[in-house]
Amino acid sequence: MGGDRRSAFHPPGATGRESLITVQLRSLILYSKSGKVRELTFRLGELNIITGSSRTGKSIILDIVDFCLGRDDAPVSVGPITRTVEWVAVLLQLPDTRTFVARRLPAKGKKSVSTAMLEFGSALRPLPYERLANNCDSDELRQQLGRRIGLGDVRSEPQPGSLQTPFAVHLGHAVPLCLQNQDEITTRSILFHRQGERDGGARLTSTLPYFLGAVGEDQAQKQHELTTARRLLRRRQQDLKVAETADGDIDAHLHQLLAQARTAALVSAGDEFDSREALIDALREAVRFPPPATGEEHSHTERTAALQERRTQLRAKLNEISEQRQFLIRQEAAEDSYTQVVQRGISRLHAVDLLPDTGSHAEGTACPLCGSHLPQPDHAVEDMQRTLNDLRGQLTSVHTVRPRREQTLRELTDQTDTIREELRGVEGALNSLAELEASRNRFRAQAEEQAFLRGRIDAHLSQLPDTGDTYEGSLLQLRAAAAFAQAQVDDLEAELDTDAMQDRLDHALNYISTDMTAYAQTLNLEHSKRSIRLDVRKLTVLADSDDGIVPLLRIGSGENWVGYHLVAHLALHRYFTLHQRPVPRILLLDQVTQPFYPSEVAKDSGNPDLIRSDADRNTVRGMFELMYRFTNDLAPNFQLIVSDHANLSDQWYQDCVRYNWRNGDALVPQAWIDEHTS
Fold this sequence. Notes:
Strand order of the largest sheet: 2-1-4-5-6-7
Radius of gyration: 56 Å
Helix content: 40-55%
Structural class: alpha/beta
Distance between the termini: 51 Å
Shape: elongated
Number of helices: 17
């Protein structure tokens, strides 16, 4: 701990003795479910170290302080605390008094609680278990504590383009600047406590300019008024732009709509209009143009259906008659073929008629040619005669049927002609109805086109401002409203002086950058040779290097991440303290040396000799030495509480150790655990 390092902690002219605002932790108290009390006391304005083995409750210290400063979610994991403790409390030192804050842990199955107990008193001590009772909620708790440290009625304005609404700044926005748990201090993606939660980063970005003093309380309100005035100005300018654009395009749009209305027969083709008012009146008449009647569509449909049904019946009848005619024609053809065969047979047997009559002779005993007597009867002539007579009879039957068939064919032909005539009439009627339907469809299409155009015209006319003197007056009113809004913005910008605000913010960040660079070089962090600075918009650390700007996200190794978290918070709190900003004068860090211990055995012992290398051991000692000198430089106005495994043998370190929880010692006494073990 050589004196040559003090220059890195003390820029010229800096001192922390003048600060008057302070919030520091005098003690932390646990109340068991049976009424027993466990109090941890801390020294004000000094480095306080809680060292110990794993699972002794070191990390819960930070969570309890966070909860007692107004957080609704109780960040206490299931374990000895939840099994044995009913209330947790802190005794805080304020600028001119003390405050006692107690919170009952949530009931089983719940994760949050909004009630609290708040007491003030100059000589206040931790209250006994019997006096614990809720008397406020977490909102009131944050407001009262915030007012005590100088947080007035301040409104924070989100960054341009943010969807957040303005909000009041309270203690809950300052607390994340004072805490770093073991998961946060070793990550490169976030820099502040609860930054990764929903809206957590946005709230920090919005409030940091105020906590850095770039925006005063009255300026925060004026900033809100300026943002509101700018929004109003944008609306007024947009309204005026729309009105002026509409005024420039009104005539063109109106004439275009008039041409379309003439095409749709809503306006007479020969009408001319010599003024905008007359043109608008004509278009309004077009909007009121009565829609044409569509006629009796129901009877038309029924008539078409009846004719189609009749056409189907007639076609079916024609098919039936055609089949009958085809049958008779086929029958006639078959008879002709048969008649020809019969006539050929008759022709062959016709010679039988030339034979002499043999009736005088014995039947069948005379020769039919010579008439001589035959010894045996010959019946061939008789058979031939009978055949000939049969054929002649069949031919006579065929000739008898033919006239009736021919009569039937003539009747069928007449029926066919009659049906075809009727069918032509039905087809003609259907064609007429189809033409009528097409005409009606065209009529309906025109009616629909007219209705659509009337709607367009009506919508356009409804968006137009009043014409004539009223319209001109409306434009003048819009121009006057825009000019008045611009004047309001100009006045607020002149009062607010945004350039001066940015200058103050740049000054604060440059001031902090000087300390961050000095601290980073003291710890020999990577990329610390040039300049280290804080990016309040992206909430990260930036390092200037030969290859350009390097954000914390691109810097490797857990040792560097812890180191840059440490130097950023120390530099911020040094600025807060020296410039008397309304931020609690306390910083709680949890497990700053965890990247350096290679095993659980090494962590539990806390022996620096078990750290991996001499360089790592020097880094660990350098971090605690930096914190020790930091609190000494700002004493008694700043308190630093560190929960860690490390247990250095240096006397100055041991003088800072408030609690060493090893060999059975822990935050929650073993007797409490035994008492509440079921």
